[in-house]
Amino acid sequence: MKLEKAAAQLEALGNPTRLNIYRLLVRAGDEGLPVGRIQEKLDIPASTLSHHCKRLIETGLVTQERQATTLICRANYPAMQGLIGYLADECCADATCSPVAKESVA
């Protein structure tokens, strides 16, 4: 993963509303959630939700799929794993870690 992509994804998750949306989608699993259900759970206007979803989609953290008249949002798990891996891959590369630190990264 490139530094710029990781920075964009972290920036997108740095907004409290987007982080809430993303956490809902991660919890929902592979089925994802309809946009209307996300809106209900977070009690935010549709235009606000649309704006935040767009940013998460642009960074590759979320995908959307239309099923008839329903728009389904899903967490992009490979992208999430890529970001987590990017953050943890070089843990303690330049220092000696305690056994606890090494276990938490593994």
UniProtKB/TrEMBL annotation:
<dbReference type="InterPro" id="IPR036390">
    <property type="entry name" value="WH_DNA-bd_sf"/>
</dbReference>
<keyword id="KW-0805">Transcription regulation</keyword>
<dbReference type="GO" id="GO:0003700">
    <property type="term" value="F:DNA-binding transcription factor activity"/>
</dbReference>
<dbReference type="InterPro" id="IPR036388">
    <property type="entry name" value="WH-like_DNA-bd_sf"/>
</dbReference>
<dbReference type="InterPro" id="IPR001845">
    <property type="entry name" value="HTH_ArsR_DNA-bd_dom"/>
</dbReference>
<dbReference type="Pfam" id="PF12840">
    <property type="entry name" value="HTH_20"/>
</dbReference>
<dbReference type="InterPro" id="IPR011991">
    <property type="entry name" value="ArsR-like_HTH"/>
</dbReference>
<dbReference type="GO" id="GO:0003677">
    <property type="term" value="F:DNA binding"/>
</dbReference>
<keyword id="KW-0238">DNA-binding</keyword>
<dbReference type="InterPro" id="IPR051011">
    <property type="entry name" value="Metal_resp_trans_reg"/>
</dbReference>
<protein>
    <submittedName>
        <fullName>DNA-binding transcriptional regulator, ArsR family</fullName>
    </submittedName>
</protein>
<keyword id="KW-0804">Transcription</keyword>
<feature type="domain" description="HTH arsR-type">
    <location>
        <begin position="1"/>
        <end position="95"/>
    </location>
</feature>
